[in-house]
Amino acid sequence: MTQRVIRLLCDAQNYPWGKVGTDSIISQMGPEASGKDWKFSETTPYAELWMTTHPNLPSRLYESPSTTLSSHLDAHPELLGIVPQKFPKPVEGKNEKHVPFLFKILTCKQALPLQIHPDKKLAAELHARDPSKFVDANHKPEIACALTPFLGFAGFAPFDRIATNISTIPELRDFLQPLPSYQLFLDDRLNSSKLKALVKDILLLNPKSSGILESAKDVLKTLTGTQDPPMERGGGDAQGVIRSLIDRVEQHGPEAVFAGTMWNDDQKQRISAALRKTQEFYAGDPGIIVACFFMNLIELQPGEAMYVQEDGLHAWLDGQIIELMANSDDVLNAAFIEGGEKDDINIFIDTMTCDPRPAETYKLERHNWALSRGAGATVYQVPAEEFSLFHIVGTDASTTVAPLNGPAIAIVTAVSSSGSQITDKTCGTMINVKKGQVYFVGAGTEIEYGPGVEVWAAFYDDQNRGQTGNMK
């Protein structure tokens, strides 16, 4: 009988924005997730741990390190259940069988690039044009679920909040007024096309400070009615504007500086922290203005999640998350990245979804999962067919997950001090597990996660909330 629960070897991506050394939760998972290949340094940024068949960093079999999971699935397609029928070629130009999702642990100490993930139509066009950069032709909706307190920018804030920000904060008003798109948006502030035109103009602005700033006397007198020294407000570029805002916040507090906005006091504090953090790593990048004053800054506590659709504008800022998406590594970047690595701004703006709405609408509900019994699992389900996410909290009782119609990949994030096991109840085999180990679970497998085992798992979700494990 084919083995149905298979331990994997998974590797980390060391992008510079990742948390460094032991600050990254990936450092706790790496020794078991990567096995003998794991190399640790206190100065290395451990940004993403990949658990996937995607060719950019494919997982391999623990018992056969030279064998990729995708090639093993090619030899045993029954482990994928109905997935090959649904997604016969999720990675263009690759003949192996694939899971339909890309599963990660992601950590960041600074903002990721301001980005979107192209939809299927654009992804196919980009792949055909430049397959070395855009290695697949798939879309990439995604879940971010917090392992620690997490901050991330996602989507545009409601129109009225944006308009208030750029018309009542003096630095922004004075800086943006020369742009024709500024007044056009304010005159028609419910028009998504006008908003996109303004965002495009901002992203094309000069990021570097000339050192020549317009002087504006008595800014704080205007805002607060008090006499204060003249303040420099920035005038020629994003650098001056951002520095002036940060200086004023440090001197007078965010409540005074952002008094005319629609933010509450907690939101003003978070935006102030975001301004400082983005300026620290991306000094003068005009994307700071777009992210902080046009987008939703969403805070997640551990266990909370949000969902970003394909073409959705986002930039994770700080924290550690489970990240799960369709099986794609395509991305278009517009800010918080070196100039030569930015993508075509016209394609970016044309493709970008612009549906301003409150931050709360991005948050993803979690529910008790009907396909689990015993202690039970929590499930995060999304509109995308390729994936959903479940979480089992280690308790003194076990949790059994019913056979599913497609595959799952699970990472063990905690175990009992006295030892923990998972059991393949379909094949009748028991496996001793350790923190950081990653397992592929084949379609049609009933699996029991023993007492003390905490697991996060990605699974193919055929949108039939009562999956039976019947592969026919």
From TrEMBL:
This is Mannose-6-phosphate isomerase. It comes from Naganishia liquefaciens. One of its GO terms (molecular function) is zinc ion binding. Pathway: Nucleotide-sugar biosynthesis; GDP-alpha-D-mannose biosynthesis; alpha-D-mannose 1-phosphate from D-fructose 6-phosphate: step 1/2. Its cofactor is Zn(2+). It comes from the Eukaryota. One of its GO terms (cellular component) is cytosol. Involved in the synthesis of the GDP-mannose and dolichol-phosphate-mannose required for a number of critical mannosyl transfer reactions. Belongs to the mannose-6-phosphate isomerase type 1 family. Residues 6-158 form the Phosphomannose isomerase type I catalytic domain. It is an enzyme of class 5 (isomerase). It catalyses: D-mannose 6-phosphate = D-fructose 6-phosphate.
